Amino acid sequence: MRTRVALVFPDIYDIGMSNLGLAILYDLINQRQDALAERCYSPWTDMEAAMRGAGIPLYSLESKHPLADFDIIAFSLPYETLYTNLLNALDLAQVPLFTSERDRSHPLIIAGGHATYNPEPIHAFVDAFVIGEGEEVIQEIIDAHQAWQESGAARAELLSALARVWGVYVPSLYQDEYFPDGTFAGIRKLDEDAPLPVLKRIVAKLPPPTTNFVVPYIDTVHNRIPVEIMRGCTRGCRFCHAGMITRPVRERTVQEIVEAIDTAVQKTGYEEVGLLSLSSSDYTDILELVTTISERFKGKNLSVSLPSLRIESFSVDLMDALKDARRGGFTLAPEAATERMREIINKPVSTGQLLETARAIYSRGWSTIKLYFMIGHPAETLEDVQAIADLCRAVLAEGRKVAGRRAQVHAGVSTFVPKPHTPFQWVPCDSVEQILEKQALLKKALRGDGLKLTWNSPEDALLEAWLSRGDRRLAEVVYRAWEGGAKFDAWKEHSRFDVWMQAFAAVGLDPGFYTHRERPIDEIFPWEHISTSVRKKFLTEDYLWSLQGRTRVDCRERCFACGILPTFADLRRVNPGNVWQCPEVKTKKIPVKEVIQI
Ligand code: SF4
Questions:
Q1: Distance in angstroms (rounded) separating the CA atoms of residues 82 and 85
Q2: What's this model's pTM, rounded to 2 decimal places?
Q3: Which residues, 6+ apart, have CB-to-CB distance to 25 below 8 Å?
Q4: Pocket test for ligand 1, best of 282, 531, 560 (most atoms within 8 A of CB)
Q5: Which residues line ligand 1 (CB under 6 A)?
Q6: Alpha-carbon torsion 480, 483, 488, 492, what sign?
Q7: DSSP code of 207?
Q8: What is the pLDDT of residues 458-503, one digit of tens each?
């Protein structure tokens, strides 16, 4: 086999096995005659201790080969709190942690996923980042690796070749610079052929859904067939990282989705299908899709889950179509409880509409509604937080009217973390004290029969916040935190806030610089050389609009010229019609790389 790829999800198997991105890459690579992919997950701490004790390096699940024997180790990083686990996996695999310490004898270390849209805090450990969608670029990376292997050239040649692949960022080919006050001044190319900015990769048309899944023997977080029905979101929620970075919206057809489910059911025996996207009820033909699936699989014990529903696009007809697949609770995500806050975050649904939807859900037999909110949005007051409790009680009251005492409301309240590449990339986070005050208010106000509240710790939110908007200097903090014992940072029982604070102190950086500082509107950000193709001008305007409470409609109703179309005009032109939800392009052809703009 010419190229052996280890696909690593740096958390435990139970979580990683439900990651659709890794399953897609596993299938695509294994379809090649000249390459193979195997899987690897982080061992839990007891297993890790046993492996270290016995001198067993981290190995792949399929063939039990040490990871260091693979040609490419590819990490999936959907969230930032996996960074220390990436270091831990490399260390356990006995691969040098720093890219500068690796030579021809070591595997190529690559990483992709939503957290890599600001790759700087882990730039020192990863040879090349995949920015954007992986289906096509993974093949080009394997091709480039094979050509390099045959050439016998030095490792630097491979990195330089990878930097020329659309969607690949090789951090060692760039140098960061700072102003005397510590703010970021920009990035300089060290190799004149390296792109600047680095444009994210997209597929012009979604390929048919993967139907080859490895079925686990144990319960994992999702035991179901995951089918991505569309990619991207046109709603423009200002806090939403995924919504900004995954534009444009591209949809699969009802026919190809249903055929894929048919095949996957036969191959796997799963009894549930998840129709996945950032906003599944916004899929153009959602009713037709759910109805077709219900009819096709009638009597075959297949339930359908729609994990992400918009309150305003979730119709009574859709509820009726889903009724037979009823399981557990129903989830809605208003994110904020006052109309003022929902205007600031650009999720302008009315309270009346929310209550009407809740009533309709309860009256169709569901007994529990889960409501997701965030605290810490820009310009939030304690009245806005109190309104969360009031809204939960109002929803419960609707439930009680139709379902009596069976009705329940579960409120999940997380803390807002400003993300790069979003209109809120300028705003400061709440302090620990502010978060605790808001949580205390909710804990008091949401006591009572039929109500349940869950929340996350302020420290967890701050860790995510440092890493999300960090620069290259944070790599040393990440390294020292890992050295001090930080790992499994996404797990409550492994939270090591003290270790992170010590790491910041040892490096001489102030964590508040990354989280609690309102950034001037003209600040240069350490992630600006990574282009999502949504222009900074658009994000700036949207941020300023939020301060005035101005909202935008769904951009399928009106294009706001965010930057996607000029950048990808040629891809849109060759994919006319409803495959994309952006307007059609009829002007002269412009090559993609000539119109990259930040
Ligand atoms: S180009 Fe227009 S329609 Fe397309 S994502 Fe941007 S704002 Fe929306």
A1: 5
A2: 0.95
A3: 7, 37, 74, 134, 135, 138
A4: 560
A5: 234, 247-248, 555, 559-562, 564-565, 582
A6: negative
A7: P
A8: 999 999 999 999 999 999 999 999 999 999 999 989 989 999 999 9
